[in-house]
Amino acid sequence: MDFFVAKCYNGSIKNKKWAALIVLLAWAWPVLASPEPFVTERLADTVNTQSIPIWHNAYIVPKIIINYVPVNLKPKNFNPYSCISYAKAVLGHSQGEFWGNAKDIKPTSDSPSIGAVVLLKEGKSGHAGVVINFTEEEITITESNYIPGKVTQRTLKRNYPPIQGYKTYPQVNLNI
């Protein structure tokens, strides 16, 4: 290596340029050779965004940016026979806040986001659950009173016919 450096730096400007190029390429090679080191994808309608990093070789790369509202999966002080009461508790909203029945709530989006309330045409008063995970094909929700008086989780296809849409509520401090 010393021979190479000495040979390149024999005083010629042309040789100095080549040496600088070689050093630059040696330094930049890990970045240039890695597949997609700086890729960021976005979902269509992001409002509150949080980047979810994914390990990709030696880099942490944001692969997707999603809507995200914190949820409390072990809420207290809610009526287990009311899906709306449970959704309020999971999202940290006051039980005194009026939301009405699930069938009366108007969706604000056709796309799920974590912490959004999914509105379903199930039962005489409708049904609601809180989205806790989703993929391109499915959503996972937490809900109360789908089985009377019980808290359950279900995974539904995104094209499940009873889904009316999704309602997002302003984020509140959960103080978990």
Keywords, separated by commas or semicolons:
21% helix; endopeptidase fold (from Nostoc punctiforme); 3 helices; 176 residues; alpha+beta; five-stranded antiparallel β-sheet; two-stranded antiparallel sheet; 3 domains; 7 strands
Short description:
The protein is α+β, with helices and mostly antiparallel strands and about 180 residues long.
Describe this structure in words.
21% of the residues lie in helices and 27% in strands. It starts with a helix and ends in a 9-residue tail after the last strand. It has three domains: 33 residues, no CATH class; 33 residues, no CATH class; 99 residues, endopeptidase fold (from Nostoc punctiforme), CATH 3.90.1720. It is of the alpha+beta class. The strands form two sheets. A five-stranded antiparallel beta sheet has the order 6-5-4-3-7, covered by helices on one side. Strands 1-2 form a two-stranded antiparallel sheet. Strand 3 and strand 4 form a beta hairpin.
Question: In terms of topology, how is this protein built?
Answer:
Elements (H helix, E strand, L loop, with lengths): L1 H7 L4 H21 L15 E8 L2 E9 L15 H9 L25 E4 L6 E8 L3 E7 L6 E7 L5 E5 L9
Number of helices: 3
Which band does the percent of strand residues land in?
A: 25-35%
Note the run of SSEs as H and E: HHEEHEEEEE
The CATH homologous superfamily of the largest domain is called endopeptidase domain like (from Nostoc punctiforme)
- CATH arch. level architecture of the largest domain: Alpha-Beta Complex
Main β-sheet, spatial strand arrangement: 6-5-4-3-7
Helical amount: 10-25%
Mean pLDDT: 78
Structural class by sheet pairing and helices: alpha+beta
CATH secondary-structure class of the largest domain: Alpha Beta
